Amino acid sequence: MTVIINGDTGISGVNGSAANPAIKGSDADTGIHFGADTAAITTGGTDKVSIDSTGDTTFSGTVKTSKVENANTSNGGLEIDTAGHVQVDGIQLPTTGTLNNRNILINGSMQVAQRSTAAESNAVAFGSNTAYDTVDRWGFWASNPDRFTSQQVVDAPPGHYNSLQITSSLAHTFTAGHGFTVTQRIEQQNLYGTGIGTAAAQSYTFSFWVKSSLTGTFSFYALNGALNKSFVSNYTINVADTWEFKTISVPAPTDALFAATANARQMEVGFSLGAGSQFQTANLGAWVTENFKVDSTTSSKFLETNGATIQFTGVQLEVGDRATPFEYETVSQLLAKCQRYYQRYVYAGGGIIGTGLCWTTANAIFSFDFRNEMRAAPTITLPPAGNAAGQIAYLGSNGNFPTAIGTHTAGAISTINFALTGSGYAGLAGAGFASWLYQGGTSGTTIQASAEL
Amino acid sequence: MYKLINNSFTGELSVIQRVSDQSFIPLDPDNTDYQIYLEWLAEGNEPLPAD
Asked: Which CATH class is domain A120-338?
């Protein structure tokens, strides 16, 4: 075959092969060879890149690049960062862990609020306690009462609907032992897949939307269940009254101090609203063996400003080094998850709660079954006994209120039911007869079961 | 303040009643309200006796 070198048409005339490329350097089996409408780059006598007549390109080794996209687009496609993590059309893919149920937190969308959607003033819930006032699963730790209100509001960044809004009720003066947080406590069984407390523990990424009337630096924190292992990191709100998306990397919690029983608190995460020196640390961005730190020495105290607001939504905690899109759930999924920790039964006025059984004319009992099995045997809050609005009573055999309405007790409480016992009545139907448990008046009433962490 | 509540049938301690809101707290060590009650007991406090 003759090799033709032409000033207009270039070099031509020889196809070559993988073992003997047409164009090569000093290495005899490394170069470029050709066929009919095809070309290939070969090294060591093996094709590594080949282009066929349709334009399809085959790479036999690893393609090292940071971006792949359509020739007609300038954004989108597939991007690979320096850690090897992948985004598709700008959406971050998980770096580890499962593809579904990625959000370890419950109700990060602030959508479920069984207790109240109105503004509720905070109660004292200090030491290892947490109070729950409004949005499900999000509790409040507070050294002083009535320093802020919490409320579920319809105000959220695109892609969300609700947020949890905190409004300070006065300009609080902090002392060393004061502290206030918004927190979610996580059951150990929901962390099984993360290897927490072992050498194989995975790191977490915490992501959230925040909007505040204040700008400045504020603190995010995480704690183990025993409250003796702390992680604190600052985040910055740059513009007032504007939704901003934040991510915080949380190193793998490998410490044995994270040990817990299955249905107990193994970790909690939260936002500081301000804390005194007792609850502050200067060691940011790492797990430290320090008791109950929720704030940094360099952050602002939200509750020092009267009337300030701060809102959170789209809160997600997941394994891996990158925040993936917020995991949306249907309201039925969210509600069922929340009801493992708290259930609120709302009855209309004049409604039947259930049918009990009398064992004397003075006593009746009704087995109250929960909608979902609860984390632990819950604390039960009953309406008052009586025949007025908002009160409940067992009825006599004629369907009327009995001669005398006694008292009610929630006993034999388990994770699936409790016995609602009426005692001290007069005029119930008697042993072996049924009795309606009735809600008198027109205002309606509630029965509550709480098994929060 | 707390009050002891006995089982109507067995007469044995069944639940603890929190007087402030009349809630019934089970004797479950995993219940955080019961944990708080135990801390209260450990501080030397005494509940109201059962009826």
From this structure: mainly beta
Which regions of chain A carry the CATH code 2.60.120.260? 120-338
- Nearest-Cα residue of chain A relative to residue B30: A376
* Nearest chain A residue (CA) to B25: A379
Smallest CA–CA distance, residue B3 to chain A, in Å, is 12
Q: Which residue has 């607001």 as its token pair?
A: A309
pLDDT of residue A368 exceeding 90, the answer is: yes
B26 touches chain A (CB under 8 A): yes
Reported pTM: 0.91
Long-range contacts of the stretch A146-149 (C-beta < 8 A, 24+): A146/A121, A146/A122, A146/A170, A147/A122, A147/A172, A147/A180, A147/A303, A148/A121, A148/A122, A148/A180, A148/A273, A148/A303, A149/A119, A149/A120, A149/A121, A149/A122
Closest to A51 in 3D by CA, of A63, A65, A34, A66: A34
Question: Do the beta carbons of residue A178 and residue A294 sit within 8 Å?
Answer: no
Per-residue pLDDT tens digits for A227-262: 999 999 999 999 999 999 999 999 999 988 888 788
**Mean pLDDT (whole number) for A136-158:** 97
Determine the average pLDDT of the residues in A209-225. 97
Using a CB-CB cut-off of 8 Å, the residues of chain A touching B21 are 381
Q: Is the dihedral of CA A16, A17, A22, A28 positive or negative?
A: negative
Q: Give A127→chain B minimum CA distance, Å.
A: 10
